[in-house]
Amino acid sequence: MAKVKPQFIAGAVKHSGITEAEAEHVWANMETFARYGFNNAHAAAYGMIGTYQTAYLKANHPHVFMTALINSEAGVGNREDGYNAKCAEYVEEAAAMGITVEPPCVKKSGAMCQVSCKSPTNRKEWTIRFGLSLVKRVGASAVNWIVSESKKADSFKDFCLASFSMEEVENKDNSGKTWKSYTQVGKADVEALIHAGAFDVYGIDREKLIVMAEPLLKLCGKYWAQTCMVKNGKKPRLTPEQVKSEIDAYAVEDDKVVYDGLEARLQREREHTGCYFSDSPFAPYRDAINQYQTCSIEDVQNNDYGKQGVFAGILKHVRPVIIKNGRSKGEEMAFLSFAGIGGDVEVVAFSDAWWAAKNSKDTQGNPIPSPIERGKVYLVAVSQDRNKKSAILTGMTRLSNTGYATA
Predict the structure, then answer these.
(1) Hey, which of 91, 162, 302, 399 would disulfide with 285, CB 3.0 to 4.6 Å?
(2) 133 phi/psi in degrees, rounded to 5
(3) Nearest to residue 376, comparing CAs of 391, 390, 357, 352?
């Protein structure tokens, strides 16, 4: 730094109009900070590792680089940001690079994201397979068993039956050993994997699998319990073979299956993985979004949309509050959280805008039923506050499942 001090002082005086003493003071502050704030070791680390090496890896080994990047965010997030908060951003970046990230699968996924090489020599056929450990509410022991054993299961029933086992354990009274059954993948694990799409490989709708899961797991647990009774020399009311026949015959009646739409299914998928894999929740409304959207959710997150903007988002959370002070005292306002492909954003709805949103009308002036509903797609108009820190709601139009909504 000492070598360039004369140049800095001369340049500061010439171009900034400050005195030489003021330039000396600025230089002294930088010099003091440089002793501890950004020394040579930092510069070398940031320059070589943080910039050059990562850029090299991304350019020359993009699949491996993006896999490591997604894995680095496994399980990171909170209620507001969502699970695997930045994974969706990296999945989108991979897509922009021409890399497909495939959803979790009980027959194909590892514990973490892995590069899938269908053709070792043709990178165009390489993909990234999402890892089971990145699925929310799935335990480590369940993941370990699935990775090592579930590839043998050819159906959802086979999977459930194989997820139980038995072992011979010492009795507490030291009277010998007894066979006992246990499960390696619990009901919560199975339901989370269903919502994440990990059982799609079996060709059954997720909504149907959710209805099947609990009764089927109970039957499978019963089969292994009866098997243990036989091994222990006891006579069960139903033989294991009879219970197996019940499992084989088990079927779900169609009227018990609730299909609540693409958006609900995709929201559950995102809730458990942080990403949308099977489709885009915005696809059915692409024409309206393309016509009226002026910025993305990421632009709103970064306050990079000018004074006003319109974006498409899914309503995640609504937090109404009563204003305690000021001219709007006693009126209701709300904080709204919207989800996009690559992240979430919170919007402040002051009393006037919030009242208008709750009392939306169609083009004929008729009240719109359920204008505020979580999980639905909206076009959201916002403006920046004075400090450019918050997005203020100026209007919102629901697009989901309506024949009346216009922007």
Answers:
(1) 399
(2) -70, -15
(3) 357
Polymer length in residues for the chain = 407
As a whole number of angstroms, the distance between CA 207 and CA 166 comes to 30
Q: How far apart are the first and last CA of the chain?
A: 57
Max alpha carbon distance in the chain (Å)?
Answer: 100
To which residue do tokens 């080994």 refer? 61
- What pairs with residue 391 in β-bridges? 347, 384
CA quadruple 346, 350, 355, 356: dihedral sign: negative
Q: Do residues 402 and 263 make contact, with C-beta atoms less than 8 angstroms apart?
A: no
Coil, helix or strand at residue 335: strand
- Name the residue among 29, 24, 140 with its Cα closest to residue 75: 140
Closest residue by Cα to residue 292 from 392, 379, 402, 356: 379
Crossing angle of helices 206-231 and 187-196, in 10° steps, is: 150
Residue 340: closest CA among 78, 92, 71, 74 = 92
Residues forming a β-bridge with 181: 166
Neighbours of 29 (CB within 10 A): 10
Per-residue pLDDT tens digits of the chain, which is 407 residues long? 788 999 999 999 999 889 999 999 999 888 877 766 666 777 777 787 778 888 999 999 999 999 999 999 887 765 555 677 788 888 888 988 999 999 999 999 999 999 998 888 888 889 999 999 999 999 999 999 999 999 899 999 999 999 999 999 988 887 888 999 999 999 999 999 999 999 999 999 999 999 999 999 999 999 999 999 999 999 988 999 999 999 999 999 888 999 988 888 888 998 899 888 888 888 888 888 999 999 988 899 888 898 899 999 989 889 999 999 888 899 999 999 998 877 789 999 999 999 999 988 765 667 777 788 888 889 999 999 887 778 999 999 888 755 433 33
Under DSSP, the state recorded for 249 is H
Number of H helices, E strands in the chain: 15, 10
**Cross-sheet strand order for the sheet of 100-102:** 100-102, 126-129, 114-117
Domains of the chain: 2-37 (no CATH), 151-187+197-267 (no CATH), 283-398 (2.40.50.140)
Task: Specify whether the CB–CB gap between 131 and 113 falls below 8 A.
Answer: yes
- Element at 179 (helix H, strand E): strand 177-183
